[in-house]
Amino acid sequence: MTDPAPNHPAAAPAGPGARKDPALRREIALRHAVAIYVSSVLGSGIFVVPGLAARIAGPASIVSWILLSLASYPFAYTFAKLSARKPESGGLYAFARDGFGPGAGTATAWLFVAWDVLGAPAATVAAASYLAYVYPLSRLGIFVVAAALMIAAFVVNYLGIRFSGRVQLATVAAIVVAIVVAVLAAAPTIRPSDYTPFLPSGVASIGTAAALIVWSFLGYENTSNVAEEFKDPQRDFHRSVVISVLLISGLYLAVAVVTVGTGAYLVGGGVTPFAVMLSDVFGTYGGAVVALLAVFVTFGTVNAYTAGMARVYYAAARDGVFPRALAKVDPRTGAPRNSLLFLIALILLSLVAFYVLNVDITSAFLMTSGAAILAYIIGSAAGIRLLRETGARRVLPWISLVVSVVLLPFIGTLVAASVAIAGLGLLASWGLSRRAKPAA
Questions:
Q1: Structural domains in the chain?
Q2: Which of 324, 342, 368 has its CA nearest to residue 126?
Q3: How many CA atoms lie less than 13 Å away from 45 in the CB half-sphere?
Q4: What's residue 300's pLDDT?
Q5: Interior CA angle at 200 toward 52 and 181, to 5°?
Q6: Helix 45-57 vs helix 102-134: crossing angle, to nearest 10
Q7: Which of 134, 186, 316, 398 has CB 3.0 to 4.6 Å from 258, enough for a Cys bridge?
């Protein structure tokens, strides 16, 4: 998951011929849209989630991936269309506010807080676990590496450093290459016996694995407005979403099949399936390369989401949901520095809590999915209210809503973490509004 730049170089016509040929320009715009959607969704989760899902449901986790792949199309269309309708920093927060008013926006903003303070530690601890697979790291060492990744992402954003669209696309290209290499290298070692028993943990485990897999399909809500670049938006916007969903789903399913078929999820708690597969094929060097790649990709993901989430907090503070101090922007760099400080403080506190409470990685990912699903329920409902689709596409926001509601119970009691964070945040926002009234 990354937060793409809205004006990527791929959007510009490539030379005089492109300027004269509308069809060529449309083709470039279509590629640009697909690149944005793919870069928004493919991220650090690919290195971890297939193994964790297989630990939950065994070979039946492949069914979970298929179900989420099918469900990702309504998600993708709904949130990409909402982004294209009114692009701004707030994302889902803005959709909820526009659809249902300030109260829904406030709730969604605090769900984003829960999403980030639970998700960033989960992602960085998982990346550090890849290093621990190859290099000797204690549990404390894993958490120190995780903290270093988050602090590095904070510093980059605090200084106002922006990675170009080419760097973002290079990150996605690295992920795709890693997937292709891992799948092709591990495919000959697949054993049919590893697919039996197919359903070792019962039918409910498919739902739990699917709720976890939601993590891997998050990101469409962060896409920028690319629809206006198309000559034929009604056709090409839809085509770009379909192509993106097919490409992403195909990559994920391929990884899920080899993760199960090689038994890679049975090693190391399922956190490092890529390292296991490539170590089996290429030896220690294979594991080391994929470990470093996992750290690189996770840094890119956390960096992008730190930037994106800080701007959500900025937008919410501008509306009075968060303290007004968070709405300040550095005049030189344009970075919302106070929002970044607020964010990194919460994330590091969360990381310490994960360490002290000994939160396992699967629970951490499920808690994050819980926050995301709650936000998606509100966002899908906003899509029903705000989008004016015709024909069969009118049902897509409804499907997105139904899928989100169905998945939520599979998070179980872990959803309480997100509800607690959002609930405390709502109380804090209510207190802020009460204090602000006399001044008005």
A1: 9-433 (1.20.1740.10)
A2: 368
A3: 29
A4: 79
A5: 40
A6: 90
A7: 186
